[in-house]
User: Fold this.
Amino acid sequence: MNYKLSEIALINPKESLPSGTLAKKVAMEKLQPFCRDIDGFELTKYNGGTKFRNGDTIMARITPCLENGKIAKVNILDEKEIGFGSTEYIIFRAKPGVTDEDYLYYLITSPIVRNSAIKSMVGSSGRQRVQTDVIQNLEIDVPELPIQKKIGSILKRIDDKIELNRKINDNLANQVQAIYTEWFMNLQTDDSRVVSLSELMDYAGGSQPPASEFVSQYKDGYVRFVQIRDYETDNHITYIPISNKNKLCEEHDIMIARYGASLGRICFGINGAYNVALAKVFPKKDSYREYLRCYLTSREFYEGIDSRSGRSAQAGFNQGDIDSFKILFPIDEKKIIDFEYFASKIFDKRLSIIKENKNLAALRDSLLPKLMSGEIDVDLIEL
Assistant:
């Protein structure tokens, strides 16, 4: 049956939160691209902004946040607690007895609502906003509540598995970092030597073909063009012609973000030709790879490269910066070889989990519009 969105959801429902009240604030950066649950919050005094309760769905209404998939379901509040966030949020709340919370979240993320919201945007270039009245009056074919619950449950199970995998992956990374710290962060001078980081690795920046060569669909003679944003989402996959000028990376390679806000970020997991904003690490020995991955992921390196490049984040780092890092390195490299054996197996497991999550996300994204449109009959699906 057709309903206006405002008939099945309260949009920007009014809430009372006196100024100065200590409350949980969700900043825009806490809405991760295409991630159902909110990543975190700040406990601070309320001084204005959009208010919400647990179970509400938050949509970022500005460019480029909405295009990047910044929509999340609130899961950080107690039953009667009120949180707040940016004035650039639109809040959707399921109407009791009419709409299921999970169904509503997936409806808002679906092309039915999200694409309509993007098309409604008005304003100056680079700072356009969704027109709330257009969204309120959007007509949608909405199934009965039991069907809504089943649709929400099917998609939620996939997202729950993705989240569980993320936690497993974080735990694996923490295990490796803990062993690295235990073995290498407290070396004594009699069993170690001081080396420059450049004695352990080289690096090479990427290439930047003209935008006129970019295509969004793979075809023969092309290779994936890897950019920093691709390590967050597959929403902007781009391909470029195969060329001798391309700098290639593989999923095991250690990639460092060279410029801007992402400076010093360590990435991995994609095969392709990487751009100028990324640098590929070349360990001087194969047995150095996982040791270097841990060192380059450490706060010591991140803060060091940030301070060395503080003269200009856009300038990035250079060979002199890499030369300037001094590290206590074991004289007997058997410890490095043993660490590589242990850590590389964990890394391979992490890669397999990342691939599984990409497949799960692709499954969810393919099911989402089909379930919402009724193309797939949920009565044929057993939970």
Remarks:
- The first strand starts at residue 2 and ends at 4.
- The chain has a mean pLDDT of 92.
- The CA atoms of residues 198 and 320 lie 9 Å apart.
- The radius of gyration is 24 Å.
